[in-house]
Amino acid sequence: MASIKVAEEATHGVIESPKEQTFIYSKILNGNSNDLWEVSKHVVALFPDLAPHYCAKAKFVCGQGDPGSIIIFHFGPGISRGGSVKHEIGKVDNKTQTSEYTIFSFSEGDVVNPSFFEAKMKFIPEKNEQTCAIWTLKYKHNEDEVGLLENVKKMAIIMVKTIERAVIEKRIVRHTMVLKAPVDTLWDVLMHEHEVLPKAIPHIIASYNYIEGWGQCGSIRLLRLGHAIPGGNRILERIDINDCVNKKWAYTVLQGDPKYKYLSAVMDFLPGPKEGTTTATWMGVYVPQNNTVPPPDLALHVWKVFESVAKDFPVYCV
């Protein structure tokens, strides 16, 4: 059951200054906190897809979700008076599953309104695969901005419900596989996948080339699909994480995927249950092109290629 609380705090200084108030919305969601937390990082893609009546479109205008990133959400017809809001991310804490951001209103020409909105989203694990989501808003506003304030509150409540829906509808998927090869060897194969995959599975991946960078964060690579992928052509991907110390790799599909409007994934290689083995995990959040498209599973096929290459072609392991 959801609960809402509003509190007022006296503001020091000029008497005419509006009071600082706190609005709290909490709800028990179906889904474990890890999945809900990960999904919350991808609301720019999921919100317009799952709740277009309230969010017509959203996009990053700065950054990609790290502190300092800026998102613009355009209201859909379900939000009175229409308009847009801008979010600036201030904090992302994976350990406590908490994010903080500032909300600004703006009009045509991107003129920032002097309203003050600071929001925090937190996920707390509960029993039986449930999670308590708490959204807190601290704000100061003028009386003529009541409509804007109500829109901000409404959007936040709908966003929390949309995050839950994304988990229920399995827009987040996880794959785990134990591979018969050491972690360092598989990581080296991954670093050469632009050479490995076109040779091993040309019917799926014809070529893989970097067009910006060489694999570091922010690099862009062009993937040409093989004849086995109906409707496939060219896919652009951005490298989001390349952590050789912790063996973590992440990427986001920017355009061209015939199956998914949006796909962002993180892959980890950890020591496996036996010496010389690796536990590979892949976690992705996605938006399908249509409701008949199954969750992504290409990682499972790619891992088997990596395992084979690590065994038979150690020349790639440098």
UniProtKB/TrEMBL annotation:
One of its GO terms (cellular component) is cytoplasm. GO terms for biological process: abscisic acid-activated signaling pathway; defense response. It comes from the Eukaryota. Pfam families: Bet_v_1. Residues 36-169, 179-310 form the Bet v I/Major latex protein domain. GO terms for molecular function: abscisic acid binding; protein phosphatase inhibitor activity; signaling receptor activity. Belongs to the BetVI family. This is Bet v I/Major latex protein domain-containing protein. It comes from Ceratodon purpureus (Fire moss).
